[in-house]
Specification:
There is one protein chain. It contains eleven helices and ten strands. Helices cover about 40% and strands about 15% of the residues. With about 300 residues, the protein is α/β, with parallel strands linked by helices. Helix 9 runs parallel beside helix 10. The chain has one domain: Arginase, Chain A (3-Layer(aba) Sandwich), CATH 3.40.800. The strands form two sheets. An eight-stranded parallel β-sheet has the order 2-1-5-10-9-6-7-8, sandwiched between helices. A two-stranded antiparallel ribbon has the order 3-4. This is Acetoin utilization deacetylase AcuC-like enzyme.
Length: about 300
């Protein structure tokens, strides 16, 4: 095996910095800049091979989104809701963000990378089949999962530890038994997910405010891991949101850097046992810039052997 094949992959694009929903908006270009600055300063970026995110194709997007939703995105700038604004720069950024996950899936499935992290924005897990919302326009993780299935896989796991529930991912995959979604999230909190008892492929573990490390780790150990053992996924896609950190201004779950290192190590070990180590992570939330950057560092370290 070549050195390139074993090197973790960092996928990003400068277009993701140009999407800007306005001064003071928490989902800002500064998020990516903070992550890059931190990982360069601490040397973590030296372990990655960098590649540019391609544009997702219409075919790839239409596997998970309706034609009307794609058409609305293609028509250009609009205010979707008070938190979600499509500017002239949004479309390319959103296409690159979804395309990054597709590229990551292709690279790890081909054995060209041991792990892929998609440092992209806008995030995606609130985007439903027919609706943009919650800072999200296309559902990046779902696009990647659907692409993996189109390439011949039969079982995909989507992991979502963002503090806000990935309602868009659930909306898209809830009737597809080939994909299981494993979630921890603060409840009650936006988007006020009511649950779906009719969808056994949604493994939800809601946590109360101030739950902290012990409750988070217990949810993963008691709810996720037994279900993943039953599923035996052939690929793991991670909606990697870091807004459950104790410094984040938009929630109050109170996780720590050690928790993100721990969950990275757990997913690395599960992947090594069931799917040849294949993990693709894509950035979701995280709005305290210092905490976000250090949390990404902590999460990626186990995949780098650190």
């Amino acid at each position: 095996m070549s050195i390139a094949a074993t090197t973790p992959l960092w996928i990003t694009h400068e277009a993701c910095l140009r999407h800007d929903m306005g001064r003071g908006h928490p989902e800002s270009p500064d998020r990516l800049a903070a992550i890059e600055d931190r990982l360069r300063a601490c040397g973590t970026m030296d372990f990655f091979r960098r590649e540019l995110a391609p544009l997702a194709t219409h075919e790839q997007l239409l596997r998970v989104h309706g034609e009307a939703h794609l058409g609305a995105m293609l028509r250009g700038a609009r205010v979707i809701d008070g938190d979600t604004i499509q500017t002239e720069e949004t479309l390319e950024a959103a296409l690159r963000a979804a395309g990054a996950v597709v590229h990551g899936v292709e690279q790890v499935m081909a054995g060209h990378a041991s792990f892929a992290f998609c440092a992209v924005r806008p995030p995606g897990h609130h985007a439903e089949r027919d609706r943009a919302m919650g800072f999200c326009f296309f559902n990046n993780a779902a696009v990647g999962a659907a692409h993996a299935l189109a390439q011949g896989l039969e079982r995909v796991a989507v992991i979502d530890f963002d503090v806000h529930y990935g309602n868009g991912t659930a909306d898209i995959i809830r009737r597809d038994p080939r994909i299981c979604m494993y979630s921890t999230y603060q409840d009650p909190l936006y988007p006020h997910w009511p649950g779906a008892k009719d969808a056994p492929n949604l493994i939800d573990a809601p946590l109360h405010a101030r739950a902290g490390s012990e409750s988070f780790r217990a949810a993963v150990t008691e709810h996720w891991l037994p279900a993943m053992e039953r599923q035996q996924p052939q690929l793991i896609i991670v909606s990697a949101g870091f807004d459950a950190h104790e410094r984040d201004p938009l929630a109050d779950l109170r996780l720590t850097y050690d928790d993100y290192h721990w969950i990275g190590a757990v997913l690395r070990d599960v992947a090594a046992e069931c799917c040849e180590g294949r993990v693709v992570a894509t950035l979701e939330g995280g709005y305290d810039l210092h905490a976000l950057a250090r949390s990404v560092e902590s999460f990626t370290h186990p995949f780098l052997g650190l």
